[in-house]
Amino acid sequence: MKKLALICAVVLSMASCASMKVVDQSAAANAGAAALQALTISDSQIKQLCSQYMVESDGQNTILPANNDYTKRLDRIMARFKNISDLDLNYKVYQSNTVNAFASGDGSVRVYTGLMDVMNDDEVFAVIGHELGHLINKDVRDAYRAAYLVVAARYGIAAYSQTAGAISQGFIGDLGQQLAQNAYSRKQETQADETAFQFCIQNGVDPFAMYHALNVLVSLEGSSGSSSKIKELMSSHPNTQKRATHIKQIAEAAGYKLTSPKQGNSSGTKPSTSGTKPKTVKPTKTNSNTGNSGNTNGGGKTIKVSKGKG
Predict the structure, then answer these.
(1) Is residue 292 part of a domain?
(2) Pick from 3, 285, 305: which is nearest to 150 by CA?
(3) CB of 84 within 8 A of CB of 291?
(4) Is 304 inside any structural domain?
């Protein structure tokens, strides 16, 4: 909130600066109003904004149909989550070589075929758990709020025909670009990794799945033949190897032991069995409600994890 307040102050000063080529005084007022609105925009408004963004995103990507093997595989992976009932998720597969996945504030989960090609089911589960961690920890909400602040103020200063903050296709496009420029903090990534670990141990998934998934990314980053898109994507994240080491330490501290190298393959047909469990781990908070039925969930409480160190 302090960071947003600082940005708000900067935007307000920009809107009133004599050196700015503001078309009229109402445009400057719109910019200031947009900045203030972004600080107070409600969670329901953020959710609506996310929904509109996802309409744009889905329209720009190839979504694989329900009878596609990738979609069937994602269905199986999502069915393993048993404690996400209140997130009201909908999930789809994007046909793309991009090694990525993300969760939006309206409950949309999108997984790229490029990610599914290089990771087994446990690892994909962990990555999705990580993205859901950003959702549960309110990182997604805060990211949209910060991006909205910048873009809405920009529209106000530029005196577009729409009032500042009006949701148009152009606005949504600019919002997406602003989101891409922003990056989660090291603390947020650490907490999301730890949420993924909690998801794994609560749902019978290899406790070292997040560790293995991060090592896949490390391997891709170091590959001379890997796409520059991989390196560009990971350049905005904290050091991936350090994240892998941290999550391995978390698993070992919880009583799990890594006994052998990762097993399995990119198709996910042979689950990883590398983590043995010498003792029962009690999560910070869990819930026995069942999760998915098809592509949506409703009701219940979500997983809680302890805060990671930034």
Answers:
(1) no
(2) 3
(3) yes
(4) no
pTM > 0.85: yes or no: no
Look up the domain containing 58 and give its range. 2-276
pLDDT band at 308 (very low <50, low <70, confident <90, very high): very low
| Two structure tokens written together for 3 | 């960071």
Give the active site residue among 56, 123, 131, 194: 131
Q: Is 131 a catalytic residue?
A: yes
Tally of domains within the chain? 1
The more confidently predicted of residues 223 and 15 is 223
